[in-house]
Amino acid sequence: MENANNGKIPTVMPRIGDPAPDFEAMTTLGKLRFSDYARGHWVIFFSHPADFTPVCTTEMSGFALEKKFFEERNTKLMGLSIDSIHSHVAWVQNVREKTGVLFDFPIVADLDMSVAKLYGMLQPGESETAAVRAVFFIDPNFTIRLIMYYPLNVGRNMEEIKRALIALQTADQYKCAMPLNWKPGEKAIVPPPKTLDELNERLKSDYEMVDFYLAKCELK
User: Fold this and answer.
1) Fold of the 175-217 domain
2) Which of 25, 26, 44, 56 is catalytic?
3) Where are the domains of the chain?
4) Who's near 45: CB < 8 A, 6+ residues apart?
5) Fewer Cβ within 10 Å of end Cβ, the chain: N or C?
6) Residue of 177, 149, 183, 134 lying closest to 163 (CA atoms)
7) Nearest to 139, CA basis, from 3, 37, 38, 9
8) What is the pTM of this model?
9) Is the pLDDT confidence value at 40 over 50?
């Protein structure tokens, strides 16, 4: 595995707003460079603790079953665990044989833990040899937009992952913000005014206003 930091693993974990670290690694779809795979797309890059484990199998199956949802939103998937490529391939085939679900997105084989360390997927307080259940939302500009972490013993919420992706993409499209529990079709929050002129325009608008700084509008 090669990374774009001259082989050095950063001591600071990636944060929201940071450039997504680039790397090249062997995956179940062959050797890939992340930046080439991701170019022009959103990417959800997620880690799981280990192949052939029950919670991970339900999670990976959940991502695979939502293939159409992610494709419709210009979003690619990429998984990772600290297992060999042979283990990954055997697990993919085992799940396909037992359930009919195919993990047809790339899964990074990260035996040396280089990529997991690059993305802060290893958290020693939880485990020093297994990646936690991390989820990175990365936009087409290779910027990390949202990060979720789950412990080893709690599976992710696929509905929240889908909701968060739609919210991020919608916020970008309409230059707005999303209130608590926002779902598609609901009103969004208009950014608060920064000048008196903007305030006066706000007061004349047809926005739903709780107060001048908290206003909602329909997305059209």
Assistant:
1) Antioxidant, Horf6; Chain A, domain 2 (3.30.1020)
2) 56
3) 2-156, 175-217
4) 20, 34, 78, 79, 80, 119, 135, 136, 138
5) C
6) 183
7) 38
8) 0.90
9) yes
* pLDDT tens digits for range 126-159: 887 788 999 999 999 999 999 999 998 999 999 9
Alpha carbons 53 and 73: distance in angstroms, whole number: 29
> Is 176 a residue of the active site?
no
Q: Are strands 133-138 and 144-150 parallel, antiparallel or unpaired?
A: antiparallel
Q: How is the chain split among helix, strand and coil, in percent rounded to 5?
A: 30, 25, 45
Distance CA 114, CA 7 (A): 9
> For all residues of the chain together, what is the average pLDDT?
92
| CB contact at 8 A, 1 and 24 | yes
Range 2-156 classified under CATH 3.90.1280.10 = no
Q: Are 148 and 157 in contact (CB under 8 A)?
A: no
